[in-house]
TrEMBL record:
Domain Fibronectin type III-like span(s) in chain numbering: 699-768
Family listed: Belongs to the glycosyl hydrolase 3 family.
Region Disordered, annotated ranges: 1-27
Protein name from the UniProt record: Glycoside hydrolase family 3 N-terminal domain-containing protein
Low complexity composition bias: residue spans: 1-15
InterPro entries, per database record: Cellulose_deg_GH3, Fn3-like, GH, Glyco_hydro_3_C, Glyco_hydro_3_C_sf, Glyco_hydro_3_N, Glyco_hydro_3_N_sf, Ig-like_fold
Keyword Hydrolase: yes
Assigned keywords, A-Z: Hydrolase
Amino acid sequence: MNANVAEENENTTTAPLRDESTTTPLWNDTTAPVAARVEALVAAMTLAEKTAQLYGVWVGASDAGDEVAPHQHDMEEAVDLDALLPTGLGQLTRPFGTVPVDPALGALSLARTQTRIVSGNRFGIPALAHDECLAGFSAWGATAYPVPLSWGATFDPDLVERMAAAIGRDMRAVGVHQGLAPVLDVVRDARWGRVEETIGEDPYLVGTVGTAYVRGLESAGIVATLKHFAGYSASRAGRNLAPSSVGPRERADVLLPPFEMAIREGGARSVMNAYTDTDGVPSAADEDLLTGLLRDTWGFDGTVVADYFAIAFLKTLHGVAADWAGAAALALEAGVDVELPNVKTYGAPLAEAVADGRVPEAMVDRAVRRTLTQKARLGMLDPDWNPVPAALEGADLDRPEALRGRIDLDGPQNRQLARTIAQKAVVLLSNDGTLPLDRPRRIALLGPNADEPTAVLGCYSFPQHIGVRHPGTPHGIELPTLRDTLAAEFPEAEITFSRGTGIDDGELTGIPEAARVAREADIAVVVLGDRAGLFGRGTSGEGCDAETLALPGAQQQLLDALLDEETPVVTVLLAGRPYALGRAVGEGAAIVQSFFPGEEGTHAIAGVLSGRVNPSGRLPVGVPSGPGSQPATYLGARLAHAGAVSNVDPTPAFAFGHGLSYTRFDWTDLRVDVHEAPTDGEFRLAFTVRNTGERSGTEVVQLYLHDPVASVVQPVERLVGYARVDLEPGEAVRLRATVPADLASFTGRDGRRVVEPGELELRLAASSADHRLVAGVRLTGTARYPDHTRRLRSVIVRERDRPSGAA
């Protein structure tokens, strides 16, 4: 295939590179409009040069600072760069996220490769370099932040935006242009392995937090990539890559709004298709989705990139294409602009499809205009474009070894930010007064995650994603265990450790010893949960789906054995999804939930256990009462909730939005300033929140909408606003909420979004199951059909404060 591309390039007559009367080609003229520059360049390119801009090559940077080396993947044949580069290259896939490499030497390796790419094609076009950044830049030695499910638990978009900006600055400093994040899939079944990568089970929470991440990443000059568009998380039985059975209404009202918000408000410049099919149509071949909705309706003008191997999957997994050329034709016509991670279908097979008339060359031109426009806007077509990234400016690039250690991707500011997020993401699920711990003399520290450094990391962290394939290579970052941080938090306590059992080995022989250790202690802290991995190598992560939401292995047996003792048991979860906790819900002293909190996570948990940190996290997904309750979500309609018609009760043990504090809050004095509004208007109300406890704390105010009568079945309630409120002891604050009527819209019977007149309830709540104040309001007038320009957010602010990004 690569040889065919090169042969085609040699046998094609090339257009002149410039008007002889000028010295600078139009595409290099920075004073000309981007569109004119791109059009001139497309007109000058051969078909092979155009298609070369539509694929990437998976590479790994060199730890010696040499040029990158093509990565050999078991799903692809080897790539010959010498054959490809004369026609150019669209993207470099994961130069930092493929093998462990010192960041400075990786940056040098990437710069040298870009020099080769630029000199190897007649237009001097560099490749756009992309990498993963799901929970931090996926590079050796880069900060491992909490996973997205922890972002959701913070209910703090402003903090997430700061984190994303920091991640983006690190990526941009070493020469990366595009980040493959955020994941905007809404959790529909917690058995799905990639729940840890999501922000939660509510589209408003996912949309607001995800949009903040996009803003932060884009503010640093990194192209944010929304994924997975659309329906990946709604797969049958929570299985990875399984078909998605959602109907058009669920798709429009639950799965699509986060993407719409991130494009309209976040300015995302790239979208990645989902692997799944919806009602028989694979996303990579869905023209209605990728062109009709995304571009024609929403106005998106960036690039659509294929999830890895997704175009080839049209042939191999979906069976909608007979050959590689057919797969290329389907994807290109649907609107996929760039094939990732390697060239498989958009090289020679696409050229063949153009030659035999299956694909008009205009379709190729459409895609290449988008990719070149993105490069132009990144300055990559400018005559003074420099492959040397900012972090290497002024360095002696001829002495690679002298560069080693020059770039720190895990500096003090990053670590402090990671700790702040981890602290705000810890959720205190239950507490009988045992927490915070009051200087215990003897602590029994138990469980498989108590003394495991990587227990805080998700599957897309560098150590778990790449490092595990390089045994003996240091993690590159400090990963203190909870055993380490508890010893520092309680220096006078005697801490005795017993593992009890493994994560998923089912081993029972260590449980009696763990019970004995607990029996002899003042308090037992048992640390359970997941091991992140890929494709069955873990209990959470891509391809690590669960049959039930029972704790993996023999962890429940360990927990039950400890609960049989008289020593109070504090259960700590380091996990990628919620689990049913059985007897611990009613019999345990306390439960602390943390979703893979990153490298600073155990400091945050130790702080919550000691009381140094007052917990303020709230559940972005409900915690089930039993292991077999999926699929379930608080967004269910009336028939999805408990009732006399079924003996199965899906009520969660802890509801979406739930979380306790070490202080107390009262909500009072609700006043509805506007309780009747037209279908294009808004409601306004005010209320007071007071800290009635003895220490400072944070209440997370949540606003839910209940529509009692609608033309189609609605969820019992859905989140339409929230805000974090920090209060000192005795302090009260008056809050004002403005709720646009647009937030009451839904997809009607005719498939159009509608705001219907009628009665509504606005529920001010501490969780989806804990309503504190309820306002009856009414929409008047006739039904209205808002479009994609509708208002997407409510606003909750302190009186006399400016609106924040919190809700």
